[in-house]
Every structure is written in C-alpha cells, then in structure tokens.
C-alpha cells in the first residue's frame, strides 16, 4: 500500500483497529503526512 492510497489506508486502520501511528518519512514524502493525518481523523480510532 501507499500513503497516497486513501481507501487502502482507511481500510487498514479500521480493520486492524490501529490506535497509534508513528510516521517517520522525510524528504519529498513529508507532505504526504497531511493526507495520513486526514485519514486518521476520518477513522477516529487513533489517539
């Protein structure tokens, strides 16, 4: 999967009931974290 694949990331966060996300990307991928944060907010299970 990819952080840019919103449907995949949402599915994984929900199915695996993930409640903590640690993102360690750098360089060109830093702005991809904005999408990840939006997905996390949508799922609602992450603390």
From TrEMBL:
<protein>
    <submittedName>
        <fullName>Uncharacterized protein</fullName>
    </submittedName>
</protein>
